[in-house]
């Protein structure tokens, strides 16, 4: 069986204010063409389809059109990530066409989508993003004995249900589509923090016994462990300048009759490159960086004195510049406050504020209180998304 593994589309996302939907539409066209040209049987989308719980209307329309086009060629299985609202993404899943299956309910984790090829049956299971505080009771074997408050516990319980179901299906190959942070993988700087109890990772061993594990959450394409059995497909576009060197792709997986896998990374289109430019304004105006004029750029102007009309003059040469700053090359080194961005660690930001307000770094007890407060806020957010 030929599987195309993708995920982390983040439809509706912007990059420093720039709308990405047009570029995401280019990726959707590429995806549909690849599925058709490479005779793909199954497309798995491993969460974070949308960038937020209530996505823009145009993002919903793009997903709808893309799923309709993919279903004309292959079976599609998708599961929600931590950015999605499982309830909203899963709306209508019970009446969806057989070719599009949305596995959004934790209660259904042990019930697979069953497919068949010339080599026999394949069971495809979905593990949506599982917030421990919201699922540790529902996934517990004993109702009055909730699971430990950790990602390891709830994902382990989920895969336990999957292995129990597989045990009743001798000779069936298995695919798990999951949204989680698995130990041993390398994060980027644009993924949302999913910590609970100070820990956001699960061990790769929770997926023992599964033939192929299609992961979502981390934006860099990568394997987990030594083989290709557990992989992240990564995001189709760079969602931060920290991802500008990643080679974005989709993962083409051939699942053999005995459950062995072979993998090919198919490069995704790059509608616009991301480039960092650090230079003088004179060099910009002399055309030394004209090769990057079509890119999204962050420009640091290094002139000693702040140039007149710096922003407008840079934009004349870099029409797609997303950030323009003045950073003199001879500026003395000095301690500066860390910039707070959408990808900053919330607990570290709070700790910095405590240090600023009190003149003393927070103690371990202080950090524990800050962590507990942050996790309570995240729980409230996920609870609201589920409604």
From TrEMBL:
Domain (Calcineurin-like phosphoesterase): residue spans on this chain: 1-221
Q: Which InterPro entries match?
A: Calcineurin-like_PHP, DNA_Repair-Maintenance_Comp, Metallo-depent_PP-like, Mre11_N, SbcD, SbcD_C
Taking every annotated instance into account, which residue ranges of this chain make up the domain Nuclease SbcCD subunit D C-terminal?
A: 271-355
Cited Pfam families = Metallophos, SbcD_C
Keyword annotations of the record: DNA recombination, DNA replication, Endonuclease, Exonuclease, Hydrolase, Nuclease
Gene3D superfamilies on file: 3.60.21.10
Molecular function in Gene Ontology: exonuclease activity
Family affiliation: Belongs to the SbcD family.
Describe the task this protein carries out. SbcCD cleaves DNA hairpin structures. These structures can inhibit DNA replication and are intermediates in certain DNA recombination reactions. The complex acts as a 3'->5' double strand exonuclease that can open hairpins. It also has a 5' single-strand endonuclease activity.
Subunit details for this protein? Heterodimer of SbcC and SbcD.
Name of the protein: Nuclease SbcCD subunit D
Q: Which organism is it from?
A: Curtobacterium subtropicum
Q: Which gene encodes it?
A: sbcD
